[in-house]
Amino acid sequence: MLKILKQKNSVPFVMLLLLITKILGFLKLRTIAQLFGVSHELDIFWAAFTIPDMLFMLLVAGSINAAVIPTFSEILRKEGKDSLNQFFNHLMVIISSLFIFIAIILFIFTPQLTTFLIESDILQDFLKFGERIGPEDFDLFVSLTRIMMLSPIFLGISSLVTGYLQVRKQFFVTSLAPLFYNLAMIIGSVVLVVGFDMGVEGIAISAVLGSLMHLIVQIPRFKNYYDGRLRFGITPLIEGLRNSKTMQAVRLALPRTIAVLGEEVNTVVNTLISFSLAAGALSAYKFAVSLHLFPINIIGSAIAQVALPNLAESCDDEDKYCKVLNSSIQKALFLVLPIVSVLIVLRLPIVRLAYGVGAFDWRATILTAWCLVLLSFSVIGQSVVQILLRAFYALKETWLPLVAITIGIVVNIGFALLLTNFFSHYYDWRPILEQMFIQIRDVNGAGFAPVFESFIKDSLRWATTRGTSDLAVGGLSLSLSISYLVEMVVLAFLLNTKMKVITWKKTIVPSLKKAINASLMCLGMYFVFKLFDFQLDTTRTISIVILTVITTMYGFLSYFIGCKVFKIKEVALLEGIVEDIKENLFRRKKRKVDVQEGI
């Protein structure tokens, strides 16, 4: 089965590996939580982890998609493999030298940096530390920071290898890298903390081991394609810095680095707003964010990851580029829209199955489910945005996307303020509708206008004053969804100014068909859910599982039938995978029979 997926279509296989990686990510956090609970010692670890993590995100993570892969692809396409290998060597020397230099500087001056953090209220709030770092934490923080400064060195080198392999269409091994990172952290944490009693420093060492495994697992495949010898030293470093392609990569990476900083500011503002809401609001929001990222990280990331080198390869051929882009968008929508329907209808069972144990009470379930249903629309925006951003990067255009990202950040902050106010007056939609029907009835033919005017006035009053409802936290979720949908539209508009690829026939019409089909699926699932909800005792976990499985099975069946009715061609993806599985199983059975009969 895996062999077939690799040969015919890399997207399903990458999605499978990302799913396993995501599950291991949850297990990693669960393992750490079981070892240390909600402790101050663990807070110090997360605080120390922030510095190398932010360093890696700013210097490498954003530039891989924005600059490195498009540049690699251009060199391979126009100048050949030897030129690509030479440029890779230049970039490898520059990035490894930069990270080693920064790591040495930070290693030396970690005590001074720690003193600054202890004395700075503003910086501790900005870095979102769980509790304040005090003088008693000085030695532990210094030790953890110094250990984990090795991590960005390995991840920086490994990410460059990832970019090289993805340009060569080797998505299997690059998808294995984060999987082995999580696996190494899980095993390392248990062995070092439990077996060697190393405390929280064992987790820090495990993070370094995970980063090293991220690199090691890619080396055998990398050596198959890179047939030269890596040169390190002053001379290759100077040659790399003088290379015009290096400066081009830096120019392409700069806007993405600014965007990463802007997204960090966005996160900080949302966190600060949540502090003005009811107790537990931020936790409910974070729990819901973790759930809604599941389909984005698995589906959106897989399709975008595979699309980037293909887009970069076809950027000189407008028809081919348009076909690759629209095919990627339609695949993403085809897969995420039914999941959005599931999140909307089954939000409560999903939250209860994921978190409903121990101190996670009914209030926490309601708040998290409320955030999840409003975040579900963000799944659409974020999945498509990932593809559109890579469409720009393939054209080596990184400044225009920054415009859309900035607009998205402004929209998110503005709506977060307005909508948290609005939902702080909100308790239930049914009395609101009942009041509107009464108003329409009482106007005695005067028309709908007075009722609508009253609704607008009430909405403006709600949006500008703060009430007492716990559901105010929904404003953070809905503002994020709106911001990504706005960013998606702006990116599509700006992309069309570069190349006419988003069209009514190829993009809008197929998307509308899928949206209508998913809406009908959602409506049918709602009635099935309500029907079985009355028949089952949902205080028991087994009943929740049965309810979730039955409703989901009906939803996906209705979506599949709707795809046939609306003639949605992406359904052939599922049919092809099913046929491959049947064909593979049939061959195995036939081979087994032949062996038994001595043929």
Descriptive overview:
- The protein is mainly alpha-helical.
- It has four domains: 9-242, no CATH class; 254-425 and 465-502, no CATH class; 429-458; 569-599.
- 84% of the residues lie in helices and 0% in strands.
- The protein contains 23 helices and no strands.
Key features of this structure:
599 residues; mainly alpha; 23 helices; globular; disordered N terminus
- Helix tally equals 23
In total, the number of strands is: 0
Question: What is the radius of gyration?
Answer: 26 Å
- Bin the helical content: over 70%
* Average pLDDT: 82
* Shape category: globular
The percent range for strand residues is under 5%
* SSE-based structural type: mainly alpha
* Order of H and E elements: HHHHHHHHHHHHHHHHHHHHHHH
- Multimerization state: single chain
- Please tell me the total number of domains: 4
Q: Describe the largest sheet.
A: none
Report low-confidence residues grouped into runs of 5 or more.
Answer: 1-8
- Tell me the distance between the termini: 24 Å
Compile the SSE list and pairings.
Blueprint: H1 2-8, H2 10-36, H3 40-78, H4 81-119, H5 121-126, H6 138-148, H7 150-167, H8 171-195, H9 200-216, H10 219-225, H11 234-242, H12 244-274, H13 281-313, H14 318-345, H15 347-355, H16 362-394, H17 399-423, H18 429-442, H19 449-464, H20 474-498, H21 504-535, H22 541-565, H23 571-596
Helix pairs in contact: 1-2, 2-8, 2-13, 3-4, 3-6, 3-7, 3-9, 3-12, 3-13, 3-16, 4-6, 4-7, 4-11, 6-9, 7-9, 8-9, 12-17, 13-14, 13-16, 14-16, 14-21, 15-16, 15-22, 16-20, 17-19, 17-20, 21-22
